[in-house]
Design brief:
Blueprint: E1 6-17, E2 22-23, E3 26-27, E4 31-41, E5 46-51, H1 55-67, H2 76-88, H3 107-127, H4 131-134, E6 142-144, E7 147-150, H5 180-194, E8 199-202, H6 208-221, E9 227-230, H7 237-246, E10 253-255, H8 261-270, E11 275-277, H9 287-293, E12 298-301, H10 303-306, H11 308-321, E13 325-328, H12 335-346, E14 378-380, H13 393-406, H14 413-420
Parallel strand pairs: 7-8, 8-9, 9-10, 10-11, 11-12, 12-13
Antiparallel strand pairs: 1-4, 2-3, 4-5, 6-14
Helix pairs in contact: 1-2, 2-3, 5-6, 7-8
Magnesium ion binds next to loops.
């Protein structure tokens, strides 16, 4: 077998074009940021990982990267504790909002995750086995994803403040979706192109009655497709209970209607459908109170903040033990993350919901095209050694240059929204 001692670790921030997708805290900036991690070993193997690229997170990643030289890519427990120790000695603060609205995830788990994925890629390459084999083996050969719909403007408004009316923005290839009809058209296109068999709508953008109307329009157009609505805690407990009763029998689950474990427990006691979360259960310490309070029935895993693929499998086991369902969360991401998500989902028996992905919104990538594809709404699980994706060096260099040039250093949906609409306030719950 190849020697697997780590000799070099590179952290490369990249920026890729992102459409103006609306959510309850604001709107996506013109570029989404990610960092690509590459670990090289003395045996000549390279492993890749992908994570957020906000400033504080990058500082922690750089410090962690230095600490890994000389460690064995199979020694994941040691690597995690070395990272934990290294970042605990940094004075950097912030970066807790890297995943959007997820602010209480474990810093160590977030920093460790992409290094763990890169090490698993190396391990798979050293053994000649896919990453899913290192996670217990694939229990499915294709991983279904959902069509992730967003309310959106026609295009980015250009220089900040120059287009206070966002509909004046130059149109991107998706165009505007600001009402039920726009969302139905968006869903139709996404389903035609990718074959998705489930739909998630990012809500919390318009008053709840408008979003109820949108879900009902989607139900009328797609009578057999499971639907989900996620307002990212934009509603009070009372509003959530009202919406839940309006959408009874229509949505598969309601995701984060209201903030906090207690509020979710109150809604859960009244709502007929399961409640899901990627906001009030985002770290291992949240699981016990969530179970005791009966706050949620479904947890959305996400290896980027649950500490990598092996710890996400641990999350799956805990959910199984306590009778919680398991789904998968997504942020704007590139092909390395999709590969990791697919291997994890393939090797997690109780991950029974179609996973979230922002994939259709992305028009640029760092991986050589072709390794990952959607067939009837699902990605066939790569069977070659490691993750099964390769970095396109030219594309990586281009997107790194774009990062250097674009001027965005932290995700700030609220700040960008305020630059277009100075009256915008980020409040939760809003309705
Ligand atoms: O990309 C977005 O705007 C999403 O709202 C994202 O930030 C969320 O973290 C996520 O997709 C969710 O399910 O809450
Ligand atoms: Mg969510």
């Amino acid at each position: 077998m190849h020697p697997t001692t780590i000799t070099e670790v590179q952290v490369t921030p990249v920026a890729f074009r992102d459409p103006p997708l609306l959510n309850t805290v604001g709107v996506h900036q013109p570029y989404a940021l990610r960092a690509i991690i590459r670990i090289r070993t003395d045996g000549g193997l390279t492993g890749v990982g992908e994570t957020y690229a906000d400033t504080a997170h990058l500082t922690r990643m750089e410090a962690a990267a230095e600490a890994l030289i000389g460690l064995d890519a199979f020694a994941l427990n040691t690597i995690r504790s070395v990272i934990d120790d290294r970042i605990s000695r940094l004075s950097v603060t912030g970066g807790d909002g890297v995943a959007g609205m997820i602010t209480t995830a474990s810093t160590t788990d977030r920093v460790f995750s992409p290094f763990e994925v890169a090490c698993l890629d190396i391990q798979g390459k050293a053994l000649g086995r896919p990453v899913s084999d290192l996670l217990g083996g694939a229990v499915r050969d294709r991983v279904p994803f959902s069509a992730y719909l967003f309310y959106k403007w026609a295009g980015h408004p250009g220089a900040a403040g120059t287009h206070p009316v966002a509909s004046l923005a130059p149109e991107d290839e998706w165009g505007a979706a600001l009402d039920p009809q726009g969302l139905v058209g968006q869903a139709r296109r996404m389903i035609d192109e990718y074959g998705f068999t489930a739909i998630k709508l990012k809500g919390g953008v318009f008053p709840p009655d408008e979003e109820i109307a949108a879900i009902k329009a989607l139900r009328a157009e797609f009578p057999d497709v499971p639907l989900r609505l996620d307002p990212n805690a934009a509603w009070s407990v009372d509003t959530s209970i009202r919406v839940a009763s309006e959408l009874d029998g229509i949505v598969q689950y309601l995701e984060d209607p209201t903030p906090g474990l207690d509020g979710m427990a109150e809604v859960s006691g009244e709502a007929k459908m399961p409640l899901a979360t990627n906001m009030c259960v985002v770290a291992f310490e949240h699981l016990k109170p969530a179970v005791v309070k009966k706050s949620v029935s479904v947890v959305l895993s996400d290896h980027h903040y649950w500490g990598g693929l092996q710890r996400s499998r641990l999350l799956g086991g805990i959910c199984d033990a306590f009778g919680l369902g398991l789904s998968m969360h997504s942020n704007s991401h590139l092909g390395v993350s999709l590969a990791a998500m697919v291997h994890l989902a393939a090797a997690t028996p109780n991950l029974t919901y179609a996973c979230d992905t922002h994939w259709p919104w992305k028009s640029e990538d760092v991986v050589v095209p072709g390794a990952l594809r959607f067939v009837e709404g699902a990605v066939p699980v790569p069977t070659g050694p490691g993750l099964g994706v390769e970095i396109d060096e030219d594309a990586l260099a281009t997107l790194h240059q774009q990062y250097l040039d674009c001027g965005i250093r932290d995700r700030d949906d609220t700040g960008y929204m305020k630059s277009v609409d100075p009256t915008f306030e980020n409040t939760s719950p809003r309705w």
